[in-house]
Amino acid sequence: MIAQPEWIDEELVGTHISIVEKKKKIRLEQLRFEEFHEGDTAQIMHIGPFSEEGPTIQKLHDFIRSMDGVRTGLHHEVYLSDIRRAKPENWKTIIRQPFQK
Fold it and tell me: Which of 25, 49, 63, 69 has its CA 20 to 30 A from that of 100?
């Protein structure tokens, strides 16, 4: 779930998925391009293993409360690190939580 500039479209993404699959000999069938509208959202960067996200998520929830906001829906995560290569203590995850005031 990484935002793309407006000039990136589904056709361009599809073309480059094919190129990467052939060049790197990997399968990307779960990769997709779609619009996502979530409204107001708070986000925070977590660095470390997924099992230690609890305090980071609590900070995010506390921030939303401090803004007189109410969480709407579930949070989602954007993984920035390749967990096959990076050490768990260096994993970077953006945690996003939609909310309403």
Answer: 49
- Torsion (CA) 23, 14, 74, 78 in degrees, nearest 10: 40
Domains of the chain and any CATH numbers: 1-36 (no CATH), 39-101 (3.20.80.10)
CB 71 within 8 A of CB 98: yes
pTM greater than 0.90: no
In this structure, are residues 64 and 97 in contact, taking their beta carbons and an 8 Å threshold? yes
Name the H helices within 25-95. Answer: 54-66
